[in-house]
Request: fold
Amino acid sequence: MGDVRFRGGGFVARPGGVAGAVTVAVVLGVWEGGARLHWFSTVFLSMPSAIGRRVFELAASGELAGHLGASLSRLAWGWAVGTVAGVVAGVGIGLFDRVRGAGMAVVGALFPVPKIALVPLFIIWFGIGEGSKVFTVAFGVFFPTIINTVAGVDAVPRGLVRMAQSFGLSWGRVVWTVVLPGALPSVLAGLRITVATAVILLVAAEMIGAERGIGAFVLQAGNLYDVDALMAGIAVLSGLGLALSGLIGLAERWFLRWRG
Reply:
């Protein structure tokens, strides 16, 4: 009877960049070929080549930079405020029993509310300017961050906490050296979700009340039935999502490099 092959590394995540690139290339090729063979009308769905050409034209004219710059500024502020506040609140809820009851009750009541439906209310509160858009993003990011942070704190092995306490570490040192590093993987995993949520809410807020921004550009293109521009805006949003997800992945590898 032969040796049994060791499969302990069978669940180790490995990058699939080649497979992903091939998949995207095949999808775009079929899409382009179908359009050129008139399998569907380009009046309703632009060809990838036409979308790429429009993105290049927008970039060359500087219009894309203006819209993208406005969106990135709102996204950065809203996501940063919501993430920091959510992590702080999540750590507090996870560590203190008295805070947990009230905090999770608030999260349970407000988290299911569609944040897009609250955009008009935020405009009434903060005006049509930047404040309403930033707060919309921050509010949408806040609750998922709390949930992931609390889950991360709860998942820290209690044996590690007791071992740290047995060495005479203070409460603050235990939290800083054991609890927070143990909760970090869950927090970073949640960032992937909150980045996508932030982009969705930003576009919705810009569609309701903004003159600049990718959301406003997409809405304007749709009102003008300019399908090429509309699809170009969607392509930019897709690229933005991929770029942000890649940055989160780099942050995960950097902060979690101690796991080997």
In short: The radius of gyration is 23 Å. The chain has one domain: 70-259.
